[in-house]
Structures are given as structure tokens and as C-alpha cells.
Amino acid sequence: MTDAPHPPTGSAAQPAASRFLLVSCQPGAEEGLFLTQQLMLPQLMRAAWRRGAVTFRMPEGMALPDASGLPFARSSALSLGQVTGSSVHELATAAAATRSTPHHLHVWQRAAPPRRKPQEAASADVLPAAVELHATVAAMLGCPPASDGSDAAAGSIASKGEDVLSIVIDAPGRAWVGWHTAASPSSCWPGGFYPGRLPEDAVSRAWLKLDEAVAVFEVPVRAGQRACELGAAPGGASQRLLSLGLTVVGIDPADIDPRVAEHPRFEHWQMRARDVRLRQLRGFDWLVTDMNIDPSSTMDALQRVATAPGTSLQGIIATLKLPQWKRAADLPAWLDRFRSWGFTPTARQLSSGGRELCVVARRPS
Ligand SMILES: C[S@@+](CC[C@H](N)C(=O)[O-])C[C@H]1O[C@@H](n2cnc3c(N)ncnc32)[C@H](O)[C@@H]1O
Question: How confident is the model at residue 17 (pLDDT cuts 50, 70, 90)?
């Protein structure tokens, strides 16, 4: 699996001297991670990697890169190296020795499968190891106990500016250790997993994706605003927007769940996106899309709305489905298109999403 030697072991490593970046991603998303890294952060050199965890050598003097350069990174940290131990206590002692006083400790298994149902525990066989290691190291370092906000990683949610020690379990008795200062919402969450939950009455998983997008990109959606969603059926994302107090028009030839369709602030235009007249698309604050079509077609549909005469859009929340991982190589061109319409875009693979990217593009204020 690896194509280069492991970074130096933890005992000798200190953040200031670290030359490696420790990144985690959705298991299977490594191809997307590497393609976009080569295009957007080519100064990084791929080092050791496994399914779900990758290290990059950083050039001399390079600071921890901004997450926008690594859209498939669920979390990133300065690598403090690998630690080994035959027992949880030994592993915990080695991990604890890499750094003395983090505010928070985050522990997860590098290839923990994505959660199908966010209410359920992630995986009975991997999470207990993370929970046990977290409890042992947290007690040694005086870190808070794991909250139950996320069930894919063990840890407590950090605030911006707080220091986090991360332990990524690689195999029994072996782990990578990383260090970062929380600066963005996802860097506060254990493993970068969104700690939000899908409500029992959500009509689709898109409820949680929209919820995560708003949280992770800090999208300023407000009650009273108007949103238009292309590809709205059965209605999960619209349902979340309605619960935030927005008025929503959902455009989709398919049926909308009655719990959304009958909402007094929801209107269903049962048609394809391209069949809507341009003048009907005026007066929206937000354009949302999650269509199960080729991402180039999604981009064309977005362009038609975003560049329509008289548009007053503040921003776009777009899901771009990737039919193959190699389509991630098109991301820089897609981002250029958002810029050419007058928006500032940022892309990220959401922890609640599948083989797709979420792009949030804001009109500069
Ligand atoms: C992944 S689902 C959308 C989930 C939805 N956002 C939710 O919150 O439940 C994809 C949807 O895209 C719709 N779709 C595909 N092509 C479309 C088009 N050209 N115009 C409008 N909707 C389209 C499909 O009918 C389907 O309902």
C-alpha cells in the first residue's frame, strides 16, 4: 500500500520540526485526494499512505496548508510520527509522550467505514479500540472525556484556537499521531466527522449533507431568505432549509415527500431544471443543487441560474457527483467557472456524503 518509507517515529518528533502532514480521508477517496493535491498543492510530496490515512512531506518552512487546498482531506495535522505498542497502555504511553498538553484528544481508526445510518454506532469492531485508546490517553494527558456527538471517532469537540492531539489507529499496536490548532469548524470535530445527527423525521440523508455543508462552510443562511433547489426530491435538503426558516422552491420532475410538499413555505415546480424560465429564477438568495447527473451537466445548470439577468444570489451550495474518482481532476476548472460567474468557491468532500464534492460559492460582500 505504501510507496515511501514511514515518517520518523513519534519519540523524536516535535511540531516545530515536523516535516510531514498527516491527512485522513474517506476510505477509498485517496485517488481524489492525490489528484487534487497534485493540481492544487503540488509542493507537497506524497509519503506513506494507507486506505483512509495519508502522509505528505512538506517543503522547508511550509505552514500547515489551508483545507481548501485539499478538498478530500477530512482532517489534517502536523505529523508527530508513528507510535507502536503491544498493549493499549503502551501505545497510549507512546502517543502521550509525543506532546504534553493538548486541549483535546481525537482518536479514530483510519479505515472506519462511512456511516450508513448516522444514528447507529459506526462499526462495532473498530470503534471500541478508539474509545479505549482515547480514554487511556485522555486520562494521561488530562484531556476531556469523549463526547457522544460523533460515533465515528472518539474525542471532545474543540473550539477554534485550541490544540488537538490526534491518534489515527493504523493497525493493532500501531498508530499515527498528529497535532493541529483548531481553526475551522471541521478541525474542531474528532476526525473531521460532522457531529450532527439525522433527525428521525428527515425525508432523506440529504438533510444531513445540507446541515453539514452549512456548518462546515459557515454558510450564513437566515430565516426569511429564499432558496431554490435543483434536484430537490424527495426533499431532505429543502426540509433542512425550511427548518432554518427559509422559503424554498424545489425543482425536480420527481415527487416530493408530502411532509415537505405540504409545508406552507415550500413550492414544488415539477420539471427539469432547464425547463424553468429564466425570469422565474429571479429573487433567490441561495441556489442549492444535488442532481444525480454528470457534474458537467450540473455545472451547466448552475451557470444558467447564476448568470441569469437580474439574479440576486448570495451564494450556491452545490453537490457535484463524481461518476469516477478521476473526475476530481476537473475540480480546478469547475472552481474557475464559479469564479467567472462572480463567486468565491471552496470545495470539500463532506463526511456525510459519498463519492461527490460539495462546493459552496459566495458572492464577495
Ligand atoms: C440525489 S437526488 C436529490 C436529493 C434531494 N436533494 C434531497 O434533498 O432529498 C437527485 C435528484 O435529482 C433529480 N434530477 C436529475 N436530473 C434533474 C434535472 N435535470 N432537473 C431537476 N432535477 C433533476 C432527480 O429526479 C432526483 O430526484
Answer: low
C-alpha span between 239 and 232 (Å, rounded): 10
- DSSP secondary structure letters along 251-272: E-SSPPPHHHHT-TTEEEE-S-
Crossing angle (nearest 10°) for helices 236-243 and 206-216: 50
What is the atom index within ligand 1 of the atom nearest the CA of 210? 8
- Whether 272 lines ligand 1, by a CB cut-off of 6 Å, is yes
Which tens digits make up the pLDDT trace of 246-273? 999 999 999 999 999 999 999 999 999 9
Phi and psi (nearest 5°) for 246? -85, 160
Which range marks the domain in which residue 214 is found? 206-362
As given in the structure block, the three cell numbers for residue 226 are 429564499
Whole-number Å distance, alpha carbon 293 to ligand 1 midpoint, is 8
Helix (H) or strand (E) holding 169: strand 163-171
> Which atom of ligand 1 approaches the CA of 207 most closely?
8
- As a whole number of angstroms, the distance between CA 143 and CA 183 comes to 19
Residues 30 and 146 in one domain: yes
| Per-residue pLDDT reduced to its tens digit, 57-89 | 999 888 888 777 899 999 999 998 999 998 888
285 and 248 co-located in one domain: yes
